[in-house]
Each structure stands twice: as structure tokens, then as C-alpha cells.
Amino acid sequence: MIAFAAGTETGKDRSVNEDRIWISAAENACAVFDGQGAAGMVAGIAMHAFQRELETKTNVADPDLLLRALRHVNRQISKVLREDQRLRGSGTTVDLLAFEGNRMVALHVGDGRVYRLRSGALDQLSSDHTLVAEMVLKGELSADQARTHPRSKVINRVIMGTEVIPEILHSGLEAGDRFIACTDGVWRGVDEAALRALLLAMPSADDAVEAILRRAETSHDNASIIVATVG
Question: What pLDDT digit, counting tens, does each position of 77-102 carry?
């Protein structure tokens, strides 16, 4: 059994929340989206398109199904962007988690993150699809330099109606595991040590979400998080 807890905050410096959250207990699936421009409209389109593609499926934790759903979502977004020139250049990230039997499969695009808390250890399962993360991999920047780099928020993979290569993540499940999907407004305001401490200190996932979002206000960005606990 998977129990979901979630929350979102607009942030002190933002007037509009461009993040979106989707949870389906029936499909044992959830997702966070971080819209880039257009007041979160593209994030909303992506959320509803994924929902339509997945809500009637019996096994959502299928990489091929998730990839087909992403292609459908991209077609929907491409159509909307062609019809409304004001939305040109807009896009969204996605971190979608699907659970089935003893496994979790995730689809990841952008600078959101997927973490797993198991036996007290917090591991980042996803990679950051950002310019600075690429520079770190090439040895052009250190991790510390990347955090304060002026282009640290430049994303090099985003859903915007064109072809995009997602990251597919896999994990087995153990009782007590917590899987976290969050937008960058969370991890930029709450480092991994603080995130781990808050999750461990609070048996209630709802309380942990509330505490994490309070801490995330320091990122001055929209912040959204889902905590999925394996029963």
C-alpha cells in the first residue's frame, strides 16, 4: 500500500504558483510539474494529459507506457503552443512516480528531483537536467561552484512540445520507504541534510511536508512536494 502526502507553496516573492500536483491513489501514481512561463498553463496541460493517459491503465509502473504517455503529452502541448503564440517558449518539468507490486518506476524531465529515504539514508535517484549539472559532469565546475553559479537555473531538458529524452528511474520497494518528488523550489531551499532530518524527525508524512515547505520559503520560488510512503 502506498500513502501519499503533498503540498505546494507559492513563495514569498511570487504572485502566481506555476507548479502543479497530481495524485491518483487508484493508479498508485503521482507527479509534480514546474511550469516555465504562461502562469503554469503548460504545467496544467501536461498534468491533465498525463492523467487522461494513465487513469484507466491497470499497470502504470511500465516504462513503455510512461514513454508513450510523454509522447502524447508533448503532442498536446505542441498543438496548444501552435494555436496560441502567447505561449511560445513555455514549458514544464515533470517528476512522475508509479508504483506496482514491489517496484517503483519514475519518469523525470527537468530540474525537479526524486529522492528515496530508506533505513535513514536519503538518496537522490534523479539527475538534474541543468546546464551546471552538465558542467559538473564534464569537470568544468565543482558541485559547490554549481550551487552559486549565475546560470544555475538554466534547464536543458523541458517538456515544451518538442522531442525530449526523459530519465526513467527504477527502484525496488521495502516497507517504510519514502519516495519524494519535488520541484526545484524545495531542494534549492532545503538542502539534503535538512530534508533528511525533517523526514526522519516526523513520522507523519503530512507534518513532514508542512515543515519542508516552511523551510523551502527561503528559495523565493514556487515549491511543491509529494511524499509517497510504502506500507
Answer: 999 999 988 888 899 999 999 999 99
CATH of the domain at 20: 3.60.40.10
Cβ atoms of residues 109 and 94 within 8 Å:
yes
Into how many domains does the chain fold?
1
Q: Coil, strand or helix: which one is 23?
A: strand
pTM, entire model: 0.95
Decide if 221 contacts 11 (C-beta within 8 A): yes
- Buried/exposed code over 105-125 (b: 16+ C-beta within 10 A; e: otherwise): bbbbbbbbbbbbbbeeebeeb
Distance, CA of 152 to CA of 143 (rounded, Å)? 11
Domain that holds residue 71: 2-230
Residue position matching grid coordinates 498508485 = 28
Strands 91-100 and 29-36: antiparallel
